[in-house]
Amino acid sequence: MIHILTVHWMDPKWIEPQLSYLRRNVEEPYRTWASLEGIPDPADRARFDVVEDGEGMHADKLNSLAALVTDTADADDLLVFIDGDAFPIRPIAGWLRELLRDHPLVAVRRDENRGERQPHPSFCATTVDLWTKIGGDWREGGTWTSPGGTQVTDVGGTLYNQLQTAGIDWLPLLRSNTNDLHPVWFAIYAEHVYHHGAGFRRRVSRVDVADHGDLASPRLRDTARLYRARHEHPMDLVRRINPATLRRLWQGLRQELPNSEQSRYLEEATALSDGVYADLVDDPEFYRRFETT
Fold first, then answer.
1. Is residue 132 included in any domain, yes or no?
2. pLDDT tens-digit profile of 139-178?
3. Is residue 107 part of a domain?
4. In a domain, 237, yes or no
5. Cα(190)–Cα(187) distance, integer angstroms
6. What's this model's pTM, rounded to 2 decimal places?
């Protein structure tokens, strides 16, 4: 059995594309496990086998879903972690089992995003047995040195440390685009997995910040960190807000722009993203535009 664990946040637009591509490209029996924070529609939630929103941020939600799976799954079942705006574009079951014969864990590694070193949750696969043995944990923690010489971390940092400590030779799945619309977004990894990127937040990568200055405005994630520092769980704040109000707040934060030049850049990035989204909804072979020069 393959267990597919995903997180969608505040916006249901990625549910249909993701499930559609999963149906086409997972050629073995599988179950879907999802966190759908801020997506209350029963019809959306009924499309997944198990929905458990959980507490905390992205990494906490993935950890909670994994705990649910490992409580009941067989040791040799596969865990596939995948971002809400990611999905397979080619059949993956046989491909993954072949890769996992030689490497106990395979995951996207975004070298293109200023040298990220950690396994990235946009796509990661391993067995229930390995995840349980290492106490798999998606939270930030482990650090690496950026091209600018600073120590950085992100979701997957703790898992990066766990794999290093255990001496596990994991296999990075690298970007295989031959045609790029953006250096980080709209990525194909190892010719099998598509990750749109920033599907649920402002479209700003480390590369964008390095090239265009600080494009980031306040976000719910930053607010959550503030409340965490004040010893209040961030989801306590979220859950006190009416879902419709929370969606409006989220959209408002995404629209707050630093200045006119950066505003134009972000507007162009949004238009580009929306165009690719329309293509992937209409054309199951949309990804071929990224494989030709």
1. yes
2. 998 888 877 788 888 899 999 999 999 999 999 999 999 9
3. yes
4. no
5. 10
6. 0.83
